[in-house]
Amino acid sequence: MRVAAIQMCSTPDKDRNLALAGDLIAGAAASGATLVALPELFNCWGSARELRDGAEPLDGPTIAWARKQASHHGITLLAGSIVERSARGGEHLHNASALIDEQGEVVATYRKIHLFDVDVPGAVHRESATITAGTDIVVADAGPLRIGMATCYDLRFPELFRAQLAGGANTVVLPSAFTAATGKDHWEPLLRARAIENQVFVIAPNQRGSSTEKLHWHGRSMIIDPWGIVLATAPDRDCFITADVDLDAQAKIRATLPSGNHRRPDLFGEL
Q1: Cβ distance 139 to 167 under 8 Å?
Q2: What integer pLDDT is reported at residue 119 of this predicted model?
Q3: Is 252 a catalytic residue?
Q4: Per-residue pLDDT tens for 188-201?
Q5: Domain locations in the chain?
Q6: Which of 75, 185, 230, 255 shows the greatest Cβ crowding within 10 Å of its Cβ?
Q7: Of these residues, 9, 40, 84, 127, which one is catalytic?
Q8: H or E segment to which residue 111 belongs
Q9: Is 44 annotated as catalytic?
Q10: What is the pTM of this model?
């Protein structure tokens, strides 16, 4: 099974972002990918005000667009994330991802649990000023894959991925806007660690370039196998990367080095 991660630089211009994403989805599908993943806030990146102004319900125009993309190309599409406004109104916004099947139906939704509130030089940000944290761990089926859904800063919290493993995940998809300041040292090591410790495939589409004068992204989107080997890395441009997922090889890794069976919930607690 071939999977793809899309890398792009999103701006406050939704029409421009969706046109670019559509071109990259078409290219990934033409290359044989049957699962395509978009990065975090692929439809709109900007200031806190621009994010609030661009918020949509999950039955709004962006996810309707994503559903058409999935059905048109006959792929499973992970619609990275958007700023979600409740269909019932109100002030609570979520950073929400939608997993869409090849018929264009939304089969799972994940709302980002861990919010990026940091004072790292070059990466000062208060996501909680705009976004309300989600509360649900999500694992969903996509053909032969059982996908753990996570977003960007979630990568730093291994207990989330351990809980997804307990839910049967064999793949993690992590749409991101990982900053340039932290990504140069942390992006690849953390991605490979999550793959190795849980023996899962990791598909990590990332933002690249600069969305505003203050928002600078690391890029280097990656697809990693359950042994921690990087199968594909994106160059520093808008593009897609692909890799073939070998579930038989994963099963062999899990059988010969069954670390998931060696956990000690009697000592550490069951997630």
Answers
A1: yes
A2: 86
A3: no
A4: 999 999 999 999 99
A5: 2-258
A6: 75
A7: 40
A8: strand 106-111
A9: no
A10: 0.96
